[in-house]
C-alpha cells in the first residue's frame, strides 16, 4: 500500500519512520511548506520530498495519507485528500470544531475513503495491559482514577503550539489522550470540571470527570515541566489497585485487596495466602506504539474492519476536551447531557 505523510514536524517524523519499516507499505513522499524540513525527513526515510500537497497527491499517488498538521488545518487537508480518493489517517484531536469533524466525516463517506484518528495511547503496552486487567475485573469496579501526563512545552520548538486556536492548549492536545482512555474504560460521562493556569511556556490543567456508573477520574496535564516527558495512572477499585508509571522499572503493578472471610466462604480462597503483584517490567521495544497503531490502521483500511479507536470515539474525546475548556473558562462544572458545542475551541 502506498502511503504519504503531510507535515514533517515531530509527529510527521514519527509517522514517516514507522511507515518506512512496515511490511507491505511503501512511503511515496513527505510534504511540508518548510521545504528544508521535508528534505531532511525524506532523506532520513528514503523517499521524496514535496512542498505542495497537490504535487504529492498527483506525483506520489498515495492510497493513504497521514495528516500531521496543526489541528486547525485537519479539516481542510482531510477534505482535499478525500476528494482525491485517498484514505486519511489524521493525528488527534480530530478537528478544531464539531462542525469541522462532521464535514470531514461526510466528505470521506461521500468519497468512500476511510478516516481514522490517531489516538496512540491505547497502543502503548502498559495502557493495553491496564485496560485488559480492568475489563477482566481484576480490581473489581473502578472507583477513583488518577492520571498524569506532563512534559516540556512544545511551543519552544514549534510556535503554532502557542496559538490556542491552532493547538487547543494542553487540554485539547495532550490531556485528550487520557480523556479518550478513560472514556474507553469507564462508560458514559456525567460531568466535567476543569481548572487551568497558563503563563508564557507553561500550561497546566486539572480536570475531574464524573461517570454515570460512579467512577471519578482526576486528570493532570502540563506543558512546561522542567524534565522529561512522563505519564502515570492509577485505578482504585473495590477489589484492588492497578498503577503504571513511565518513570519506574516496574511499568505495571496490580495490588489486590485482602481476601475477606466472605470471599473465602464463597470462592474457597485462603485469606492467609499472600497475593503476589502482577508485574510487567520495562524492556526496549522492537515495535513502537506508533508502529502498532499505524499497522493496525493500514490493516483496517485494507480489510474495511473497525479500528480500535473509532471516529466516534475521537469526536467524543474532543467534545469532552471542549467541555473542559469551557469549564476552565467559566469556573463551573459542565453537565454533559446539557453541553452543546459552539463554533470554537471553548464550547
From TrEMBL:
Domain Gfo/Idh/MocA-like oxidoreductase C-terminal: 132-336
Family annotation (InterPro entries): Gfo/Idh/MocA-like_OxRdtase_C (IPR004104), Gfo/Idh/MocA-like_OxRdtase_N (IPR000683), Gfo/Idh/MocA_Oxidoreductases (IPR051450), NAD(P)-bd_dom_sf (IPR036291)
EC number: 1.1.1.18
Domain Gfo/Idh/MocA-like oxidoreductase N-terminal, first and last residues per copy: 1-118
Protein name: Oxidoreductase NAD-binding domain protein
Any one GO molecular function term: nucleotide binding
Record-stated family: Belongs to the Gfo/Idh/MocA family.
Keywords attached to this entry: Oxidoreductase
Pfam families: GFO_IDH_MocA (PF01408), GFO_IDH_MocA_C (PF02894)
UniProt key word Lipoprotein: no
Amino acid at each position: 500500500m502506498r502511503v504519504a505523510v503531510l507535515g514533517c514536524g515531530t509527529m510527521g517524523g514519527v509517522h514517516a519512520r514507522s511507515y518506512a519499516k512496515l511490511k507491505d507499505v511503501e512511503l511515496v513522499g513527505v510534504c511540508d511548506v518548510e521545504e528544508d524540513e521535508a528534505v531532511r525527513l525524506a532523506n532520513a526515510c528514503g523517499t521524496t520530498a514535496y512542498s505542495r500537497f497537490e504535487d504529492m497527491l498527483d506525483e506520489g499517488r498515495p492510497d493513504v495519507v497521514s495528516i500531521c498538521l496543526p489541528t486547525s488545518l485537519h479539516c481542510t487537508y482531510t477534505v482535499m485528500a478525500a476528494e482525491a480518493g485517498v484514505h486519511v489517517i489524521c493525528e488527534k484531536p480530530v478537528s478544531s470544531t464539531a462542525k469541522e469533524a462532521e464535514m470531514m466525516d461526510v466528505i470521506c463517506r461521500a468519497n468512500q475513503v476511510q478516516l481514522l484518528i490517531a489516538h496512540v495511547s491505547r497502543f502503548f503496552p502498559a495502557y493495553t495491559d491496564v485496560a485488559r486487567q480492568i475489563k477482566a475485573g481484576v480490581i473489581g469496579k473502578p472507583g477513583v482514577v488518577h492520571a498524569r501526563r506532563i512534559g516540556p512545552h512544545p511551543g519552544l520548538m514549534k510556535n503554532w503550539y502557542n496559538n490556542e486556536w491552532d493547538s487547543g492548549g494542553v487540554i485539547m492536545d495532550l490531556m485528550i489522550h487520557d480523556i479518550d482512555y478513560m472514556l474507553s474504560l469507564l462508560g458514559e460521562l456525567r460531568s466535567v470540571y476543569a481548572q487551568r493556569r497558563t503563563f508564557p511556556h507553561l500550561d497546566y490543567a486539572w480536570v475531574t470527570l464524573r461517570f454515570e456508573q460512579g467512577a471519578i477520574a482526576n486528570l493532570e496535564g502540563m506543558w512546561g515541566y522542567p524534565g522529561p516527558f512522563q505519564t502515570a495512572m492509577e485505578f482504585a477499585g473495590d477489589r484492588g489497585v492497578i498503577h503504571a508509571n513511565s518513570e519506574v522499572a516496574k511499568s505495571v503493578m496490580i495490588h489486590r485487596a485482602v481476601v475477606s472471610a466472605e470471599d473465602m466462604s464463597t470462592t474457597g480462597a485462603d485469606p492467609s495466602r499472600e497475593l503476589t503483584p502482577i508485574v510487567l517490567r520495562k524492556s526496549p521495544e522492537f515495535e513502537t506504539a506508533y508502529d502498532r497503531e499505524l499497522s493496525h490502521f493500514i490493516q483496517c483500511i485494507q480489510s474495511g474492519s473497525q479500528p480500535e479507536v473509532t471516529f466516534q470515539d475521537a469526536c467524543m474525546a474532543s467534545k469532552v476536551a471542549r467541555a473542559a475548556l469551557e469549564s476552565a473558562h467559566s469556573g463551573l462544572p459542565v453537565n454533559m447531557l446539557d453541553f452543546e458545542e459552539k463554533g470554537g475551541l471553548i464550547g
